[in-house]
Amino acid sequence: MSTEFLLPVRVYIEDTDAGGIVYYVNYLKYFERCRTELMRALGTERAAISESGWMFVVSKLEVSYRQPAHLDDELQATASITAVGGATIGLFQSVRRGETVLVEGDVQIACVDCETGRPRRLPHLLRRQADASLSAKGDTA
Amino acid sequence: MSTEFLLPVRVYIEDTDAGGIVYYVNYLKYFERCRTELMRALGTERAAISESGWMFVVSKLEVSYRQPAHLDDELQATASITAVGGATIGLFQSVRRGETVLVEGDVQIACVDCETGRPRRLPHLLRRQADASLSAKGDTA
Amino acid sequence: MSTEFLLPVRVYIEDTDAGGIVYYVNYLKYFERCRTELMRALGTERAAISESGWMFVVSKLEVSYRQPAHLDDELQATASITAVGGATIGLFQSVRRGETVLVEGDVQIACVDCETGRPRRLPHLLRRQADASLSAKGDTA
Amino acid sequence: MSTEFLLPVRVYIEDTDAGGIVYYVNYLKYFERCRTELMRALGTERAAISESGWMFVVSKLEVSYRQPAHLDDELQATASITAVGGATIGLFQSVRRGETVLVEGDVQIACVDCETGRPRRLPHLLRRQADASLSAKGDTA
Known about the structure:
CATH architecture of chain A: Roll
Oligomer: homotetramer
CATH class of chain A: Alpha Beta
Shape of chain A: globular
Distance between the termini of chain A: 10 Å
Largest sheet of chain A: 5 strands, antiparallel
Largest interface: A-D, 27 and 27 residues
Helix content of chain A: 10-25%
CATH topology of chain A: Thiol Ester Dehydrase, Chain A
Strand order of the largest sheet of chain A: 1-3-4-5-2
């Protein structure tokens, strides 16, 4: 059983740069689209900014760029939860073209209060869902 | 006397696309940077989103793309006020490289309430400043 | 019979701005994604930059912003061909949320040589397909 | 003596997101603008994509986000060279507001052939300049 979440991504002109490849920051947009859909799949409709006054912000990034993507490529962005803390979630994410890993790395997101920007405990339901996703993955080991 | 407002802009990789030129929507970012600095010059420190509950949104765009800009180009974005209405300001804007006009057109921005999104009369001081800028220009005709 | 082309678009954090709405230039990215898919549907796999040495650039834009889109919105971008010239294609494009038109306008794209940037006649097959799309639309009147 | 390179950056609407802060990937655009100007200062006018057939791509990122930046903020992006390899340059980069570090981390860029994307030795002059920048820094220890 795998809890890796997949999102298909098409490369458009907006994503590319004058080097003829996808601009390096834009893979991180793909990462975020995929994280957002993962959260939605875990039951959090307002997946990035909640109506209950909290939002997720990225607190740490560690990314390796292995191969470039090009205009018109059909890619897959992936995300799987690797750690759940009191106010943070760790994910392993990648962008692939078929079997080839183009970009991969670890992303830590933190739940913060929309007004103050201070860390805030993960909403209970989300935490339970994230834990479940994490356990499901552990089971495969 | 001219009230054309000028902002120097350097083209970075982020602005370009796989065609080797500046991506068409990014000139409109240059337009907005220049409008924002024009507003700041007119005395509106929070030039795009006020702390008094209003913000500017673009309501109309009419743009002609004449020549492309390239990576590392040093450009000038320009803005001059052409019309002041109850809740709107009209501007003529361009992006130039030296004497060459690359992109130019008319932009209408509208003052709206941050919460409701409804049109809202221009703040008094801003309206007076915008009118003054308009008159100064009229004087040159 | 309708030849309006539709592309579903989800609004992500990357698309929004501090006003809490989609940033005005980002609707034009939705426009371009939709144009690209329309071209692909007309049989042009390399839909934006051909391997035969030509590409499309935007030459004119005329856009009205009627209502804002928000984070997590599910939108539709649309494109229909309204004119076919020697080296240009005119399109009417919109972004809608359900029945509500948020943004709409006319976009003219020009076929140019990738090296010189000079206008270049539309590839024969693409021109025929674009004409067919235009006629199909005319038939509905 | 310090060889930290500084570039002032103003936050515009384009940089922000619906959370009311600068969107996390956009700090990486500031990083790249600063790297580009550092390269230009080292004598490489075509600082990102050379006319001699090579370009820089990012190969690794490790970034910590400490505090958010907001609309209208005046920031400083910084870059200092920390390692020079055969085909790579390591940099320490940050974005600060006054004395406060908002974002910081390590970036590795690789020199690649524009056509093949394969690693390519750093141009001789650039390597010498980068080494000099590195030594100057070492001297301060």
